[in-house]
Amino acid sequence: VQLVESGGGLVQVGGSLRLSCAASGSFFGIDEMGWYRQAPEKQRELVARITGGGSTNYADSVKGRFTISRDNAKNTVYLQMNNLRPEDTAVYYCKADLISGKGAYPYWGQGTQVTVSS
User: Fold this and answer.
1) CB within 8 A of 89, min separation 6: which ones?
2) What is the Cα Rg of the chain in Å?
3) Region 21-36 average pLDDT
4) Angle (nearest 5°) at CA 42 between 40 and 46
5) 56-109: per-residue pLDDT in tens?
6) CB 59, CB 46: distance < 8 Å
7) Sequential DSSP letters for 74-102
8) Residues 60, 94, 43: CA angle, nearest 5 degrees
């Protein structure tokens, strides 16, 4: 099982990026999926998450600017990031709770760097 992220990069203030994270391997399904980020010398924090039923939750700092979505047929979660700010600079990680015969277990992607320049 692995989660592969893509879409990070360097963008100017006010710009946009779209992150993708695809899950592959052997599992029955996916429960909650989410995006977290970690800036230098800071703890990892939740950015946004989405349940299997499509309910979403966002950090206050990204509400109105970021949108999380998922394509269950592709086992993929997306994060559309608009109006990016320098404080959004971080390594972004996706997380997915993958369902196996023994229950749901969290898996993490390798991380993708997002850098917002002013």
Assistant:
1) 39, 114, 115, 116
2) 14
3) 96
4) 110
5) 999 999 999 999 999 999 999 999 999 999 999 999 999 999 999 889 999 999
6) yes
7) GTEEEEEE-S--GGG-EEEEEEEEEEETT
8) 55
